[in-house]
């Protein structure tokens, strides 16, 4: 049986940036388009995972809802795929505890009793619980998730072994070959939601003028002409990566077209192509956000479908372990 169950999640950090889109989300839409009819696709906004770090509750609610809206806005289809809020499922996620850890093996009185953030350990376990609840076979993730998936496979394998069963498929990592998008202001760092300077990232909701201003202000270099050289010319190369990413073309082929042009021409074209790429998702995002009732109905439906599957898996787990 080669039926695929594809599962992935995104943090509830709000409107995604173009790095999230080219590096992960667009690939989810592609997988949806290319899936066989009986393949199952499941995408979740992992609200509970946000609690690994301190959060402002009102702000979190907004960014959580915006993240969900963005998934639908980019073309994930709530009929074809299951799109849901992980936090609509019953989980208690703890990330802080008092652990007695001796700092000095020779002196047991020297014990550190402060609250420890155990999220580093509990985060990947919660993630594995998500992945395995749907008997996932394929997980599209970034390369930073490789270790987490390794742990997930270990947990699945040890459960299968201890119950002498093969309930859980060992989920395969599906890597996205897309190149990393860098900060427009500091091309030594990746484009990120958490960077302080808002001009360092392009959001899915940025309007034409905002895109133009951010690209115009993007850091490049003072060399003449345009060439792709990530070591010597990270800022210029990043613009080429953005352009090639949006056009879904090879970056070297794109660079070749600009070798006799300047940064000005490159920036104009990057701006146009970003506008072209974002126009529809942006409009769809604002349409969705204007109707919170509709969004909630979509989320409820997704959560219901997700629960149906995970409850079936749990029933099998209970039977196997004798509960
Ligand atoms: P951020 O770092 O902005 O908070 P996340 O860590 O939530 O983003 O990442 C969500 C997804 O987007 C992951 O699959 C990650 O690999 C991808 N991603 C994040 N930033 C970038 C980037 N600058 N370029 C390409 N992909 C990215
Ligand atoms: Na991150």
Structure, described:
With 323 residues, the protein is mainly alpha-helical. The chain has 2 domains: 210 residues, 3-Layer(aba) Sandwich (Rossmann fold); 111 residues, Tyrosyl-Transfer RNA Synthetase (Orthogonal Bundle). It is 49% helix and 11% strand. It has 10 helices and 9 strands. Strands 1-2-3 form a 3-stranded parallel sheet. A two-stranded antiparallel sheet has the order 4-7. A two-stranded antiparallel ribbon has the order 5-6. Helix 1 links the parallel strand 1 and strand 2. Helix 4 crosses helix 5 and helix 6 runs antiparallel to helix 9. 36% of the residues are buried. Bound molecules: adenosine-5'-diphosphate and sodium ion. The site of adenosine-5'-diphosphate has 17 residues, from helix 1. GO terms for molecular function: ATP binding; hydroxymethylpyrimidine kinase activity; phosphomethylpyrimidine kinase activity; tryptophan-tRNA ligase activity. This is tryptophan--tRNA ligase. It comes from Sanghuangporus baumii. Keywords: Aminoacyl-tRNA synthetase, ATP-binding, Ligase, Nucleotide-binding, Protein biosynthesis. Belongs to the class-I aminoacyl-tRNA synthetase family.
């Amino acid at each position: 049986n080669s039926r695929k169950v594809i599962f992935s999640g995104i943090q509830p950090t709000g409107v995604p940036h173009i790095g999230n889109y080219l590096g992960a989300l667009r690939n989810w839409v592609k997988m949806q388009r290319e899936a066989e009819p009986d393949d199952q696709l499941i995408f979740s906004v992992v609200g509970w995972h946000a609690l690994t770090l301190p959060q402002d509750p009102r702000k979190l609610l907004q960014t959580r809802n915006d993240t969900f809206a963005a998934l639908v806005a980019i073309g994930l289809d709530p009929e074809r795929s299951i799109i849901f809020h992980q936090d609509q499922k019953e989980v208690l996620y703890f990330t802080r505890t008092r652990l007695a850890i001796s700092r000095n093996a020779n002196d047991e009185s020297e014990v550190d009793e402060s609250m420890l953030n155990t999220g580093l350990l509990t985060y990947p376990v919660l993630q594995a619980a998500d992945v395995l609840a749907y008997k996932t076979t394929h997980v599209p993730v970034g390369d930073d998730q490789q270790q987490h998936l390794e742990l997930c496979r270990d947990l699945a394998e040890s459960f299968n072994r201890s119950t002498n069963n093969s309930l859980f498929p060992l989920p395969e990592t599906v890597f996205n070959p897309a190149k990393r998008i860098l900060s427009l202001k500091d091309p030594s760092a990746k484009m990120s939601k958490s960077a302080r300077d808002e001009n360092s990232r392009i959001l899915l909701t940025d309007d034409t003028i905002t895109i133009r201003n951010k690209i115009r202000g993007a850091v490049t270099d003072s060399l003449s002409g345009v060439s792709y050289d990530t070591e010597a010319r990270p800022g210029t190369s990043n613009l080429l990566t953005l352009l090639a990413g949006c056009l879904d073309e090879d970056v070297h082929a794109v660079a070749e077209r600009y070798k006799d042009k300047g940064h000005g021409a490159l920036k104009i074209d990057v701006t146009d192509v970003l506008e072209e790429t974002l126009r529809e998702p942006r409009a769809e995002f604002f349409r969705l956000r204007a109707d919170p009732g509709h969004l909630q109905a979509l989320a409820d439906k997704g959560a219901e479908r997700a629960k149906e599957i995970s409850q079936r898996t749990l029933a099998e787990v209970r039977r196997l372990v004798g509960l």
